[in-house]
């Protein structure tokens, strides 16, 4: 197929040291797009080069628009998808050899062949029916290549097998991503996630979780928002408020069923929010925590207190958050009164031993992708045993021990959370996990640690959603 657009500018680049010889078909690499091997047809009758692209989607600012698209580099292998993105440098009307005109986005990218590289411009179009997923026009070849039109494969032959090996991970670039932040709040954490993502060239959208609704079916599960189907995101960062946990985790499950990478899965959010279940999981995996007891019958109050130890005790609502619903009972009688009051409200609660040596301080460890990336010591305001920053507590950078680090990592792993705040008390018998938070705030930890936590989270996301190898198809018996 020959394309006849208006004359585009000449390709940029220094060009090869010596002219390369091309036949009518050659193997080339487009490393900037994460395409280590693609078979290209050489067509000197076409000025413009073309690359096969599906699911073309424009994003970014109007001043610096970008385009996302998918490439199926191997003909007949629609299951192998390499997601790509690049800045848009132009939009041109291209007329094909059959006389049809199509408006196409134009991008610039490095092409590598025969050990040499130079920048070329390519238009994006659907070449799914073509045996060659790329066409190289004369503008990309001018001053670089001699053509022998009766022959093919003068340059080193590449192999599609590269897409089935781990080598493709190192070749793939840091492409722009489309990320959704599930949040109902316009706060520091949400704004930092948007700011950091956009600084890296990603498209970040804040989605109000309660305004999402779902099409639940086996063939085409989807999430809708404001009357429209949401696009396919590369990653979703859940910031689910405690009050909407059931519905919020249902939305997260829907994204999981679509196949979207979710930083914190629905199961981990649900189990970490249920404090009883959370403590049962921690105990099952032998992770240190304060002695804890739970009972339903008011007749068991004395035995319940006895299981934990002597006063003072902590009585904590299962739905407590940010220090609300957490009471310190200085005496056994006070503990019984608080328990009776909670039962009168038909509220579920836990009773825990009070770790005196913690002295109103705890350690918040921020775990990202299985590593503690930052930690801070939180100290309660004068006269308050709770160290929550929302209740007037203060934070400062702290050095943690190897045991504390290992405890935090193990606790996050128990819940399957890729991004978690693990709160630890320092006791005479070692670190004790108070809580694992699936939506940790960024403000306090970034200020105290002087680290770019949002950036570290995006590092993990970019690593997770990079194009990955696909299994080879088994040959039929």
CATH class of the largest domain: Mainly Beta
- Amino- and carboxy-terminal Cα gap: 38 Å
Report the major sheet. 7 strands, mixed
Strand content: 25-35%
Helix proportion:
10-25%
Radius of gyration: 29 Å
Count of DSSP H/I helices: 11
Strand order of the largest sheet: 2-3-11-4-10-9-8
CATH 2nd-level architecture of the largest domain: Beta Barrel
Low-confidence stretches: 4-15, 468-477
Oligomer: single chain
In total, the number of strands is 28
Question: What does the secondary structure layout of this molecule look like, with pairings?
Answer:
Blueprint: E1 20-22, E2 25-30, E3 35-42, E4 49-52, E5 54-60, E6 65-71, E7 82-87, E8 90-95, E9 101-113, E10 116-125, E11 134-136, H1 138-141, E12 145-147, H2 167-171, E13 178-182, H3 188-199, E14 203-207, E15 212-215, E16 222-225, E17 228-229, E18 235-238, H4 245-258, E19 261-262, H5 266-273, H6 275-284, E20 292-293, H7 301-308, E21 313-321, E22 324-329, H8 332-344, E23 349-353, E24 361-368, E25 371-379, E26 394-397, H9 402-414, E27 419-427, E28 430-437, H10 443-449, H11 453-464
Parallel strand pairs: 1-12, 3-11, 4-10, 13-14, 13-18, 18-19
Antiparallel strand pairs: 2-3, 4-11, 5-6, 6-7, 8-9, 9-10, 15-16, 16-17, 20-23, 21-22, 21-23, 24-25, 24-27, 25-26, 27-28
Helix pairs in contact: 4-5
Domain ATP-grasp: 279-462
GO molecular function, one term: ligase activity
Organism: Marivita lacus
């Amino acid at each position: 197929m020959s394309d006849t657009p208006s004359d585009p500018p000449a390709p940029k680049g220094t060009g090869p040291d010596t002219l390369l010889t091309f036949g009518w078909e050659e193997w080339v690499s487009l490393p900037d797009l994460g395409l280590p091997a693609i078979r290209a047809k050489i067509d000197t009758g076409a000025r413009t080069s073309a690359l096969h692209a599906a699911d073309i989607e424009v994003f970014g600012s109007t001043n610096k628009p970008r385009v996302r698209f998918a490439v199926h580099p191997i003909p007949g292998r629609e299951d192998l998808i390499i997601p790509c993105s690049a800045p848009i440098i132009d939009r041109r009307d291209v007329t094909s050899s059959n006389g049809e005109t199509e408006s196409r986005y134009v991008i610039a990218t490095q092409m590598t062949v025969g050990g040499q590289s130079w920048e070329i411009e390519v238009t994006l179009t659907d070449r799914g029916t073509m045996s060659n997923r790329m066409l190289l026009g004369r503008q990309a070849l001018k001053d670089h290549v001699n053509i022998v039109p009766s022959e093919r494969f003068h340059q080193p032959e590449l192999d599609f097998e590269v897409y089935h090996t781990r080598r493709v991970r190192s070749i793939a670039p840091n492409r722009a991503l489309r990320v959704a932040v599930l949040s109902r709040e316009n706060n520091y954490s949400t704004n930092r996630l948007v700011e950091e993502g956009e600084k890296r060239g990603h498209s970040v959208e804040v989605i109000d979780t309660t305004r999402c609704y779902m099409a639940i079916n086996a063939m085409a599960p989807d999430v809708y928002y404001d009357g429209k189907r949401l696009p396919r995101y590369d990653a979703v960062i859940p910031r689910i408020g405690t009050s909407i946990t059931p519905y919020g985790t249902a939305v997260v499950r829907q994204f999981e069923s679509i196949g979207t990478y979710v930083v914190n899965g629905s199961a981990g959010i649900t189990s970490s929010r249920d404090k009883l279940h959370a403590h049962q999981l921690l105990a099952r995996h032998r992770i240190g925590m304060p002695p804890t007891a739970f009972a339903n019958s008011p007749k068991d109050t004395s035995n319940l207190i006895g299981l934990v130890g002597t006063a003072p005790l902590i009585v904590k609502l299962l739905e407590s958050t940010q220090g609300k619903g957490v009471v310190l009972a200085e005496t056994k009688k006070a503990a019984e009164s608080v328990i009776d009051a909670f039962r009168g409200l038909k509220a579920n609660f836990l009773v825990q031993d009070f770790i005196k040596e913690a002295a109103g301080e705890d350690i918040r460890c921020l775990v990202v992708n299985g590593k503690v990336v930052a930690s801070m010591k939180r100290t309660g305001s004068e006269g308050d045993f709770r160290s929550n920053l929302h209740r007037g507590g203060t934070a400062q950078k702290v050095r943690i021990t190897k045991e504390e680090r290992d405890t935090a990592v193990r606790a996050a792993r128990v819940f399957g959370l890729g991004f978690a705040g693990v709160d630890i008390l320092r006791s005479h018998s070692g670190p004790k996990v108070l809580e694992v938070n699936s939506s940790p705030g960024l403000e306090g930890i970034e200020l105290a640690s002087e680290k770019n936590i949002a950036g570290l989270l995006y590092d993990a996301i970019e690593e997770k959603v990079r194009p990955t190898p696909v299994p080879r198809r088994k040959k039929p018996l």
